[in-house]
Every structure is written in C-alpha cells, then in structure tokens.
Amino acid sequence: MIKVEDLHRHFGGFRAVDGASLEIETGSITGLIGPNGAGKSTLFNVIAGVLPPTSGRVTMDGEDITGLPPHALFHKGLLRTFQLAHEFSSMTVRENLMMVPGGQTGETIWKTWFQRGRIDREEAALRQKADEVLDFLTISHVANEKAGNLSGGQKKLLELGRTMMVDAKVVFLDEVGAGVNRTLLGTIADAILRLNKERGYTFCVIEHDMDFIGKICDPVIVMAEGKVLAKGSAQDIMQNEDVIESYLGRGLKNKDMVSA
C-alpha cells in the first residue's frame, strides 16, 4: 500500500531521515521502532504531508503522493495521529467525532439559513455514527464529557475514533502508548486489532513498548540514524544482534525492554 523509496529529510546539516526505504503492506499492522532521534516521527511527518521531503518518493497504491498536503492525503484515506493528542478540549467527545468528516452542509453560512432540514439529517447521521464508534471503542460512557477532561489513554482512543469517522485506509499512529496506563493500553491494542481484522485497516505504529509491539505488529521495522536497520517479526527483531547492539541491548541488560 505505502512504498517509501530513498527518502531524505534534512534540517540544515542534520539528516533526520537519511535514505530510508520501506514498504507497508495492505492489511498489515507494521511496527516502527528505534532509539530516540532515529527519525521515526520525521518519517511519519513526511509520509503524511506534514513536512516536505528533501528528496525521495512516497507512493500509495502505486500513486505518487510525495509532498501532498495532509488535507489531500486525508481525502485519500491516509491519516496520522500524534504522540500528544490534538483534541478540541472544550467540545464533547461526541462533538469531536462529529466534526471530522469534511464537506458538511452546515460549514457554509448561507446553507445554514436555507437548508436546515438537510443539515439536521446530516447531523443525525453523524451522531449515530459517532455513537457507533464510541461503542466500538468502549468509551460510550464519556460521550458527553468535555474532551479536555479525558485521561491520556481515553484521548488516544478518541484519536483512533476520529479515523473511524472517515473510514481510513491507512493510519499512522505515533506513540499511541505514551502516558497510557496498562489497562487502557490493552483496550487500544484490542481496538487496533479489531479495526485491522474486521474493517481492513492498515496501520503503521511507532511505539517504545515492545510488549505492545509484539502483541499487535507484524512485521516490525527498525530505524537508526535516519535509515532502516532491519525488518522482521517482533521475535526475530529482538534476536537480531545489530538491533540489540544499536537499540534493544540497553533495555535487555536492564531487564526493561525499551523505555520511552
């Protein structure tokens, strides 16, 4: 689905992404790991159009999407979440979901005067879909809560719910486990697996928690110094000597598999 070829992103003399090439296969949950500063989030930002590449190419289903802005990629079904959730804190959880789909009739001022019936029907459909998403994610109990009052894990579930409001094709999740307790992290993992198996979502996940990666991801790609170091199953990656030396070794020695 996504193919990255010799991608570079430089900041002055610093090569954050330095010739990375990888593929994310349709229907996979691909893990992306590596030490801090390896270029993982920058790679996500370039693929998702947040940053332009210095050079290189990104394709989606064979179509060149290199440098397309996020809103254009959004309409193609490519979405990206961030390590820090970007909720609209003063709106309810349900309202955060309902505002995701673009092209709503109520977005045009004159239509709010002359097409009230159409707007009401659209809002009713969006409300129903939002409630279905909340049920799927098991957070219906916070539907009317202000999004800013949610816990870190609930905010991550809300971000995942946003992708469901537009039936995304491929979702890039950046440190979905950051600041999330173990119980909610399990809920998030289950939701990702269900979206993958039941709805055909393709995921690429940046995460430092190797238990989480091992539970949901296959394959796993390792980045170091802006390049792809290795690719394989989670078990193979944790036994790869090059990976252990550059990244996992510190965690294994400390009996703490990769801290954030």
UniProtKB/TrEMBL annotation:
InterPro entries per record: AAA+_ATPase, ABC_AA/LPS_Transport, ABC_transporter-like_ATP-bd, ABC_transporter-like_CS, BCA_ABC_TP_C, P-loop_NTPase
SUPFAM superfamilies the record matches: P-loop containing nucleoside triphosphate hydrolases
GO MF term list: ATP binding
Keyword Secreted: no
Residue span(s) of domain ABC transporter: 2-250
Gene3D superfamilies linked to this entry: P-loop containing nucleotide triphosphate hydrolases
Keywords: ATP-binding, Nucleotide-binding, Transport
Pfam family membership, one: ABC_tran
Keyword Zinc-finger: no
Coiled coil: none
Protein name per UniProt: ABC transporter ATP-binding protein
